[in-house]
Amino acid sequence: MPINGYEKAAIFLSAVGENVASEILKSLDPEDIGKISSYMRKSKKNDKNIVQSIFQETLDTVTSGDTQMGGEEYVNNILRKGLGDGADKIIEMVSKESAMESLKWVNPTTLTSFLIAEHPQTIAMIICLLEPEQASAVMQALPDHIMGDVAMRVATTERISELAMKEIEEVLRVQLDIGKTKDGKTFKGNMVLAEILNQCDRSTETSILESIESQNDKLADSIRELMLTFDDLEEIDDRGIQLILKELSTDDLALALKTASEGLKEKIFRSMSQRAVLLLKEEMETRGPVKVSEVEAAQQNIVKVARRLDEEGKIVMPGRGGEELV
Question: I want to staple 271 with a disulfide (CB 3.0 to 4.6 A). Which of 3, 45, 94, 241 is the partner?
Fold first, then answer.
């Protein structure tokens, strides 16, 4: 579940210690102090990775010039006061990261805001370098008049040359003040775009695929074949369905099955105990009207679980990846 700004602030202030936290709170508005304090009261022991990611995000925000705080030295001091020896490891890690590795720490909204001013080819190449979830957030935030063009360029990308990588690094260095990397990189653009579209909402997915189909219908078909959709779950064997079901909430499942095909419903019911099926059907029947967007979000959550299990080798999606099943 995403962490909002006030919760991040609460985790940050809880980690830096009373002295630093009190100094920071003095400069905030009473309303903000109240909201942050509320989260601080509710918070339990925070996961180390979450704390580290929030410190990392703070460091990146300050060093990119998005705030009026005291710069890199200021943040480094806060990190050291809050994390002690652990702060040096984070600071050292950031200094060694390449531009491409550093992109994962950049907020998609910040990234999109500067990408909009770049040429669609530059946007496409940078999107190719992002993780699918971050790439989908950037893609969806692009203006409609360039979204289709950028998607087409992503889908047809096979390699980013070393020269192009250097140009991208220069853009990132100027705009986001992050480092450099070496060598070119090869891609299967249609696979990259399929991964991105799996993370996008339905309207964005439809709009992009229609735009690509109008220019190259074979390319659009190849992207659709690579995409994992909710309906594809019907092709997974019963054992795979059981593994997926173990990681799902009844709430998500009841929502997702609202618009599912009868074949998929029956497949899922067969993989559950009779009592579980009765409870699920009761939940589906008693639930009132819901928004289509809520159903699609629930289906997307299930698809993400299936994708992860597929990547981990725990389930197999027949006909995907170009390999035969044995």
Answer: 241
